[in-house]
């Protein structure tokens, strides 16, 4: 299956992405009959499915199994998945420290190994899922496109859950490009432009669809700095349920990284929403390919997407995102 094969300019292929995050073991089938939810079957088919983490509530094997069942039901050639802070058994170091307290009567020291086997072994293969560790990954798609992805499940420490780092630690920039006064800890730093087409992290960058209900911005400033260096075509994340939405941002290209947080981005335009179409199509759609109203200029612009399916009260009422963009031919 390939949903889109038309090249919009020489050497490029229009490619469709279905983007979701923070499903917390809920499936579209759980919304059957709920006309207030766009996250209901069948979800639209795509060339690539991206799930940006929080696959579960607390990282139990039966939760992973339900999520894999859900992912298996989605029609996409390539299905890329990262973990999130709720998927505690996929963070082995965290589970060794906190697992007994988090799982209490259900604690099992072997759960991290069992969970990893589910997501990297035959069960994931049967679902057509590729589980991504932190770092850069390259794929050749059946539609003829080449896809370069940077992935990371980490976020600044949040409510003492998994995949944490301290806010004064820069996980995403190499030491020579580290945020001033931060501690460089990057093992898999984000590459510079033009190495990456899509960034997918669990947590958002600072100031981009990262505000909680109290108005506090809880994204990562180091991640924003790294995204500006990278300038991907698409950057998707979740984590902050109330931040759901999409923005086309234009980067500051003055070449100076050491600027105020708010100066990394020149401006951001929210993607307009047609709720009638969203409910009908079961996704919020945006075309950022050449010639579209929201066209992204690679190296200047990035489409930012917070794809959290759960809303702030943990009800699966937010819509998936369906993104069409141009990738280089393989």
Structure characterization notes:
The protein is of the alpha/beta class. Helices cover 17% and strands 25% of the residues. The chain contains six helices and 17 strands. It has helices spanning 61-72, 92-103, 111-120, 122-127, 221-230, 275-281, and strands at residues 12-20, 46-51, 76-81, 129-131, 135-140, 146-152, 155-156, 164-165, 169-170, 183-184, 198-201, 234-237, 245-251, 265-270, 284-287, 301-306, 321-328. The strands form four sheets. The protein has a seven-stranded mixed beta sheet, with no helix packed on it. A six-stranded mixed beta sheet has the order 4-3-2-1-17-15. Helix 5 (221-230) links the parallel strand 11 and strand 12 (234-237). The longest helix has 12 residues, at 61-72. The radius of gyration is 19 Å and the shape is globular. The two termini are 18 Å apart.
């Amino acid at each position: 299956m390939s949903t889109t094969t038309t090249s919009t300019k020489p050497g490029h292929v229009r490619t469709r992405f279905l983007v979701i995050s923070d499903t917390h073991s809920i499936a579209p089938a759980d919304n059957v009959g709920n006309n207030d939810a766009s996250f209901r079957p069948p979800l639209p088919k795509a060339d690539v499915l991206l799930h940006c983490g929080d696959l579960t509530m607390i990282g139990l094997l039966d939760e992973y199994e339900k999520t894999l069942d859900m992912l298996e039901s989605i029609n996409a050639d390539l299905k890329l998945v990262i973990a999130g802070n709720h998927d505690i058994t996929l963070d082995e170091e965290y589970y060794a420290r906190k697992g007994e307290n988090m799982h209490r009567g259900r604690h099992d020291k072997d759960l991290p190994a069992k969970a990893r086997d589910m997501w990297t072994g035959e069960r994931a293969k049967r679902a057509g899922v590729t589980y991504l560790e932190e770092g850069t990954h390259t794929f050749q798609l059946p539609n003829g496109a080449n896809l370069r992805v940077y992935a990371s499940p980490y976020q600044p420490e949040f409510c003492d859950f998994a995949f944490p780092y301290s806010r004064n630690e820069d996980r995403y920039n190499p030491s020579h490009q580290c945020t001033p006064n931060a501690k460089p800890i990057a093992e898999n730093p984000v590459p510079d432009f033009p190495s990456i087409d899509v960034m997918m992290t669990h947590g958002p960058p600072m100031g981009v669809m990262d505000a909680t209900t109290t108005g506090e911005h809880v994204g990562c400033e180091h991640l924003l700095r790294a995204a500006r260096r990278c300038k991907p075509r698409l950057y998707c994340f979740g984590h902050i349920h109330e931040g759901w939405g999409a923005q086309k941002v234009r980067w500051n290209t003055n070449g100076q990284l050491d600027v105020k947080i708010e100066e990394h981005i020149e401006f951001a335009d929210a993607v307009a929403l047609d709720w009638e179409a969203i409910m009908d199509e079961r996704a919020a759609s945006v075309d950022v390919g050449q010639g579209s109203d929201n066209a992204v200029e690679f190296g200047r612009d990035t489409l930012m997407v917070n794809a959290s399916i759960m809303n702030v009260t943990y009800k699966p009422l937010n819509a998936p995102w369906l993104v069409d963009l141009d990738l280089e031919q393989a």
